[in-house]
Amino acid sequence: MRLSRVLLASLGLLLWRGAAHALDLHTERGSPYDLALVGKLAGVPSGQTRYVRWTDLRALPTTQLTLNGEFTAGDQALTVVFLEDLWKALPTAPGADTFFAVCVDGYRSVYTSVFIAKYRPFLVLEINGKGPADWPPEGLDYNPGPYVITVSSALVPAAASYRDIGHKKPWGVVTLEVDTYAERERGILTGSRASLSPAAQDGREVWVNSCACCHAGPAGIAGGTRAGRPFEVLAAYAKYDPNFFNQYIRKPKSIMPCAKMEPHPDYTERDLADLIAFMTVDMR
Question: Could you give the 3-state DSSP secondary structure of residue 3?
Answer without folding.
Answer: helix
